[in-house]
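This part of the workshop introduces the protein records we will be handling. A record pairs a protein's sequence with a compact description of its fold. Comparing a sequence with its tokens is the quickest way to learn the format. To make this concrete, we reproduce a full record directly below:
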Amino acid sequence: MIWYNITIGDVITLHLVWLLLMTSSMSQAHFHPHDHASCIASALASAERACDALGLKFTPVRRRTLEILVSEHRALGAYDILARLDASGFGSQPPVAYRALDFLTANGFAHKIEALNAYVACTHPGADHSPAFLICRVCGTVEEAEAAPDRGPLARAAREAGFAIERAVVEAQGLCPACKDPVT
């Protein structure tokens, strides 16, 4: 076996470059203008259909939590969500938010952004995927893309090391189009 002097940072950088090249034709709805009302309605309807099909209870607090996440297109902490749930009449006890977030993440309707200890709505609910998150460090907008840890430099490095990837979290921080090229 040939070992190269490559750091995990090199692997992640190579993988992110590959990811950006492979996803450049994907819709960047969160970084660009879109019909936000339709986006919210579609996400909620999709979650309702999925819950019905799977026999899951899409309770009012779970629905409202997803609605909060979908309406933002940025990561929100549990306490931010809790404050909005409280304002909507669902109470101010932390388990209210955490139970709803646990349900949404366990069933693929939301993701946890590890670096921010916050949550975002999944843009590909129901799909078996490995998301990558592009996080704008200025405005906080989050775009979800496909990471594909089973392909590319990360997968190759894992195979060469005899390592089996079970879960990969790719979170890239940078500038979205609006913050990178502000209108003057």
User: Anything to note?
Assistant: The radius of gyration is 18 Å. Residues 8-176 form a domain with the Arc Repressor Mutant, subunit A fold (CATH 1.10.10.10). The mean pLDDT is 79. The helical segments are 8-22, 36-54, 60-72, 78-87, 94-106, 152-161, 177-180.
